[in-house]
Amino acid sequence: MPGLDSDAPSAAATPACPACLKISLNAATERYGKYELFDCAACGLQFWEPRAMPDASWYEQMYGGRDEKLLPLEPGHRYFLTDELAPRRGDLLDIGCGTGNFLAAARNAGYSVSGTELDRNAAQFAKEKLGLPRVHGLTVSEFAKQHPVEKFDVVSFFEVLEHQTAPAEFLENVKSLLRPRGYIALSVPNRERWLTGPDVLDYPPNHFLRWNATALRSFLNAHGFETLSVKEQPADIRHTAQMINMGLRTGLTGKAAGNAVASFRDVMQMPVAEAAAALQAKPTARQRAVQFLGRLKHAACYPMAIAAYPYIRMRGYKGTYLYFLARLLE
Ligand SMILES: [Zn+2]
Predict the structure, then answer these.
(1) Alpha-carbon torsion (79, 327, 101, 164), positive or negative
(2) How far is the CA of 43 from the centre of ligand 1 (A)?
């Protein structure tokens, strides 16, 4: 059968865009390890190939430490809670709710809240420490299957969409949980943010998709949503200091520390056991000295950032968060 000819180009050679499903790609624009970054000419999404989402234990390992404490609200959370176009009450489901910081704030603001979280430590924290009983250790598709009649006025997913391998399927699952004319609220890292070097978290298998406002709007629209609010966080002083710090990287710290210091970007691609060893290894005295100098250098960037900030603001440099509020058309 022609369709099964093993000499035919493989699907991986001409990947389809995971958002709009069209095969209309610009050549790979970046390579990292076994991964290639493509750019969809039809909808503007950038996505990595191949895509395979790690299991829950991977996230527990990589994000360990973040999952047992109450983190401050992120900009996306605050944009939603102050968004004049968002409904002010109703049933809200937060996908990937972490330790429940946003859920607790939404509950205080008057929503009836539920959440999903695959990291077991984070889910337990949300339940026991924040008194949020309706936090489920399920993926969105598992939740939809196990709660077929439960529907929500708002489904939120902050810093979740960039991790997805199949975003179209993910959004259809979200849709199935919404009441008619229901809302979604979300944020992703804005790929148009000001960067002076690679953002080590923004690589596979952690993130597979890179969005900007145009690609996100077209994606939501294709799935029956009307965009109500878009907010691109402007670069603030903290972001400016980080970018100055990153831009001043000379390679000296890497040399002084030897090969043992692995960046998070490299650790992510290691087999689980090797990554665990790298994450748990005690730093040598030399590495500790380098870390100390690194913190000193970062602190020294703040006065420079304050001096540079009027210029950064005038140029309209963008920060990390891209927030959307959208509503089902029917
Ligand atoms: Zn596309």
Answers:
(1) negative
(2) 4
Average confidence (pLDDT) over 164-178: 97
Question: Of 51-60, 180-189, 291-300, which has the strongest mean pLDDT?
Answer: 180-189
Ligand 1 centroid from CA 19, angstroms = 5
Could you tell me which residues come within 8 angstroms of residue 262 by beta carbon, excluding any fewer than 6 positions away? 270, 278
Model pLDDT for residues 223-237, shown as the tens digit of each residue: 999 999 999 999 999
**What gap in Å lies between CA 292 and CA 297, rounded to an integer?**
9
In the chain, the largest separation of any two C-alpha atoms, in whole Å, equals 67
Record the pTM.
0.86
CA of 162 to the centre of ligand 1 (A): 14
Residues 213 and 318: beta-carbon distance below 8 Å:
no
Q: Which helix H or strand E contains 307, and what residues bound it?
A: helix 285-315
Q: How many CA atoms lie less than 13 Å away from 274 in the CB half-sphere?
A: 9
Residue labelled with tokens 């703040």: 302
Cα of 25 to ligand 1 centre, how many Å?
Answer: 8
pLDDT at 252 over 60: no
> Residue 34, exposed/middle/buried by CB under 10 A (0-12, 13-18, 19+)?
exposed
> How far does residue 215's CA lie from ligand 1's centre (Å)?
8
Ligand 1 centroid from CA 24, angstroms: 8
